[in-house]
Amino acid sequence: RKEVEQDPGPFNVPEGATVAFNCTYSNSASQSFFWYRQDCRKEPKLLMSVYSSGNEDGRFTAQLNRASQYISLLIRDSKLSDSATYLCVVYSSASKIIFGSGTRLSIRP
Amino acid sequence: DTAVSQTPKYLVTQMGNDKSIKCEQNLGHDTMYWYKQDSKKFLKIMFSYNNKELIINETVPNRFSPKSPDKAHLNLHINSLELGDSAVYFCASSYGSGGTNEKLFFGSGTQLSVL
User: N or C: which end of chain B has fewer CB atoms below 10 A?
Assistant: First the structure.
């Protein structure tokens, strides 16, 4: 089993839709979690941290479920500019940072 | 002003050559990293330096040698390039000492193609 797994997609949804994807991790001792966004041929950029209590940033909501060892990202009212690859990042320890392979999202007009 | 800058953006070279990629950050961060993103888009950490000291050294062939002349610079030298080294290499930095809650700031990447 991979340490961090994501559905690669692509998710192809119409503008205005709500879309959600998950990321599972295998190490129950993992300490912190993030979502990054990577546009085609560009560098990854931090989207948001993920907390157990859940956190929201505008149209984006991130959630952590430690019992089931997954994190989720929900995007409401999706925009064309949300089209990108979304990378799940898990810190198992200070020296172990694992990136998921990414979920591709494509928003169509 | 570019926060994390790496050069060159594209590097095309023959097998067996030696090449370097340079990285500089002007964010005042203490920790810098090198990541490799292969054709399957997996991002894997290669090295991490905190204040010029090596703190992460993943299983990377010893043909890859990082050098940090100061905490704002982390260069990557690759000897005897192989076809399998073709990938996008990203430099990154973070504010603290490489702990578990640190956000990474990436450079724009260097596309290395080995022919």
Answer: N
User: Residue B55 corresponds to which tokens in the numbers above?
Assistant: 């703190």
Percent residues over pLDDT 90 in chain B: 70
Q: Residue A57 corresponds to which tokens in the numbers above?
A: 């940033």
**CB within 8 Å: B100 and A32:** yes
Task: Show residues of chain A in contact with B40, CB under 8 Å.
Answer: 101
Q: Is A32 in the B-facing interface, judged by CB distances under 8 Å?
A: yes
Give residue-wise pLDDT tens across range B18-49: 999 999 999 999 999 999 998 877 899 999 99
Among residues B38, B15, B11, which one has the least CA distance to residue B112?
B11
Please give the torsion angle defined by the CA atoms of residues B91, B93, B97 and B103, in that order, rounded to the nearest 10 degrees.
-120
Site of tokens 């320890």: A93
Q: Do B103 and A45 touch (CB under 8 A)?
A: no
